[in-house]
From TrEMBL:
<keyword id="KW-1015">Disulfide bond</keyword>
<dbReference type="InterPro" id="IPR004099">
    <property type="entry name" value="Pyr_nucl-diS_OxRdtase_dimer"/>
</dbReference>
<feature type="binding site">
    <location>
        <begin position="317"/>
        <end position="320"/>
    </location>
    <ligand>
        <name>FAD</name>
    </ligand>
</feature>
<feature type="binding site">
    <location>
        <position position="201"/>
    </location>
    <ligand>
        <name>NAD(+)</name>
    </ligand>
</feature>
<keyword id="KW-0285">Flavoprotein</keyword>
<comment type="similarity">
    <text>Belongs to the class-I pyridine nucleotide-disulfide oxidoreductase family.</text>
</comment>
<dbReference type="InterPro" id="IPR001100">
    <property type="entry name" value="Pyr_nuc-diS_OxRdtase"/>
</dbReference>
<feature type="binding site">
    <location>
        <position position="51"/>
    </location>
    <ligand>
        <name>FAD</name>
    </ligand>
</feature>
<dbReference type="InterPro" id="IPR006258">
    <property type="entry name" value="Lipoamide_DH"/>
</dbReference>
<dbReference type="GO" id="GO:0004148">
    <property type="term" value="F:dihydrolipoyl dehydrogenase (NADH) activity"/>
</dbReference>
<dbReference type="Pfam" id="PF07992">
    <property type="entry name" value="Pyr_redox_2"/>
</dbReference>
<feature type="binding site">
    <location>
        <position position="311"/>
    </location>
    <ligand>
        <name>FAD</name>
    </ligand>
</feature>
<feature type="binding site">
    <location>
        <position position="270"/>
    </location>
    <ligand>
        <name>NAD(+)</name>
    </ligand>
</feature>
<dbReference type="GO" id="GO:0050660">
    <property type="term" value="F:flavin adenine dinucleotide binding"/>
</dbReference>
<dbReference type="GO" id="GO:0005737">
    <property type="term" value="C:cytoplasm"/>
</dbReference>
<feature type="binding site">
    <location>
        <position position="115"/>
    </location>
    <ligand>
        <name>FAD</name>
    </ligand>
</feature>
<keyword id="KW-0676">Redox-active center</keyword>
Length: 464
């Protein structure tokens, strides 16, 4: 048994970042993790492995589709699937070991095992009970099943993202249920590796909540890459045969029942908070209807000394949102000021092209009757993008009609996930579109497209 200032339960991006910041602020800190390795969903079965497979499959796509155009002739590479998985596992290992190193460097104790909270101020791991002035729950999330449908997930034929990251082989036919972030990222991976991928989506548009123009351009681009879509379809059953599955769905507009065969079915219909085994009910911790831990503005639950962050609480289920909450709650516990600006949390989809978004959409502003203006610039007018076959897509900057203050930005195009951050910084500083437009941007960069969109909010873009 040991006494700590802070014990964090869970070592995902919320938990491990929080632990490091607590230690840096001089608090005696431990982090409980039940997995074999640190880093949570993100490093082990989420952000990092999926990006490794996206990268490898994108390289293949480039070789197959663009190399010859640049005068790079020869046989296209073939896929050695076990080696691709080994590369992905190596990337995971480097990252999870990196967190272990950072814990040692910052003197954070890793309490190995599954933790529970028998009472405020105590955390039990195995047979050991540790004392902590403050407990932070960062227990993350898990994949949820298709709501209201008869689907048994076996992680072999019917898989979540976790199974999809380590399939025995590349399937011939894959059905993805849900056209959200996971479905489109993992669907892209397998489509590029040669699978016939069909995405079945409940709504009429992909990536719900995103800017409508981006949604349309994104879907069109993915279709060009070979993904098929069945839209407005509610999956009600997945039948598993020996080595195959049949996905049954109803077309919502006419109630027509249809089905589609698959070698592998990926269930990607959202995630839910994971709080099993923590003992929250006995502690009387208040939860939301959606199963999230309820917190106040300082991430405190209704029980003194117990806080919660990341996917286990409300808000977008994103690694960087969890990290920001982790750093902020550490500051609060150390007696400082902790702050997260929930209006400026970027969202990125790491397909090719990438999709990135921050702040208000036109649709959300119309609903609020907020007057705005739009500056849009196509990557077709960006020399660098054209040079690398990445002219499809655009930057759309939205600014207040009167004050010119930037309200949001939506990008589909090359390196969109990096470009979005200059807009995030601008928004944090309350900048206007003109501030961006007057900032010198190096040539030739993709970033020039952001500046051109800002110019388009005023007197007009130059290369449009
Ligand atoms: P988690 O990362 O889920 O970590 C929680 C940890 O707590 C787990 O390791 C778990 O084992 C541990 N734990 C739980 N209960 C206990 C207990 N009682 N005792 C001990 N340990 C416990 N987000 C992005 O921003 N960008 C991306 O590109 C991205 N890609 C993703 C791809 C996939 C396939 C998936 C599934 C998710 C992706 N996400 C991405 C989402 C991202 O992974 C999550 O938002 C993020 O991991 C949440 O962090 P967290 O710290 O709240 O929880
Ligand atoms: P999601 O919420 O992004 O998408 C789920 C999709 O499934 C929605 O389009 C929804 O309409 C659809 N759906 C729901 N029920 C259905 C049904 N019965 N039939 C057909 N379609 C149905 O969830 P997803 O993709 O599982 O991702 C979970 C979380 O992981 C997200 O919140 C996301 O933030 C995070 N994530 C983030 C990534 C990133 O930042 N790049 C990558 C992967 C995941």
């Amino acid at each position: 048994m040991a006494n700590y200032d802070v014990i964090i339960i869970g070592s995902g991006p919320g938990g491990y970042v929080c632990a490091i910041r607590c230690a840096q602020l001089g608090l005696k800190t431990a982090c409980v993790e039940g997995r074999e390795t640190l880093g949570g969903t993100c490093l082990n079965v989420g952000c990092i492995p999926s990006k490794a497979l996206l990268h490898a499959s994108h390289m293949l796509h480039e070789a197959e589709h663009n190399f010859a155009k640049m005068g790079l002739k020869g046989k296209s590479p073939s896929v050695d699937w076990p080696q691709m998985l080994a590369y992905k596992d190596d990337v995971i290992g480097q990252n999870t070991k990196g967190i272990e190193f950072l814990f040692k460097k910052n003197k954070v104790d890793w309490l190995k095992g599954w933790g529970e909270i028998p009472e405020a101020g105590k955390v039990k791991v195995g047979d050991e009970v540790h004392e902590a002035k403050n407990i932070i729950i960062a227990s993350g999330s898990e994949a949820s099943n298709v709501p209201g449908a008869d689907v048994t997930i076996d992680e072999k034929i019917v898989v979540t993202s976790t199974g999809a990251l380590e399939l025995g082989k590349v399937p011939k036919k894959m059905v993805v249920i849900g056209a959200g972030v996971i479905g489109l990222e993992m669907g892209s991976v397998y489509a590029r590796l040669g699978a016939e991928v069909t995405v079945v989506e409940f709504l009429d548009a992909i990536t719900p909540g995103m800017d409508a123009e981006v949604q349309k351009t994104f879907q069109r681009t993915l279709k060009k890459q070979g993904l098929k879509f069945v839209m407005g379809a509610a999956v009600n059953k997945v039948e598993t045969l020996k080595t195959k599955a049949k996905v049954h769905y109803k077309i919502r507009k006419n109630d027509k029942e249809e089905s589609i065969d698959a070698d592998v079915v990926l269930v990607a219909t959202g995630r839910r908070p994971y709080t099993d085994g923590l003992g929250l009910e006995a502690l009387g911790i208040e939860m939301t209807k959606g199963g999230q831990i309820k917190t106040d503005d300082h991430w405190k639950t209704n029980v003194d000394g117990i806080y919660a962050i990341g996917d286990a609480i409300a808000g977008p289920m994103l690694a960087h949102k969890a990290e920001d909450e982790g750093m902020a709650v550490a500051e609060v516990i150390a007696g400082n000021h902790g702050h997260v600006n929930y209006n400026v949390i970027p969202g990125v989809i790491y397909t090719h092209p990438e999709v990135a978004t921050v702040g208000a959409t036109e649709e959300s502003l119309k609903e609020q009757d907020h007057k705005y203006k739009v500056g849009k610039f196509s990557f077709m007018g960006n020399g660098r993008a054209k040079a690398v076959f990445a002219g499809d897509g655009f930057v759309k900057l939205i600014a207040d009609a009167e004050t010119d203050r930037i309200l949001g930005c939506h990008i589909i195009g090359p390196a969109a996930g990096d470009l979005i951050h200059e807009v995030c910084v601008a928004m944090e500083f309350g900048a206007s579109a003109q501030d961006l437009a007057l900032t010198c941007h190096a040539h030739p960069t993709y970033s020039e497209a952001v500046r051109e969109a800002a110019l388009a909010c005023g007197d007009g873009a130059i290369h449009a």
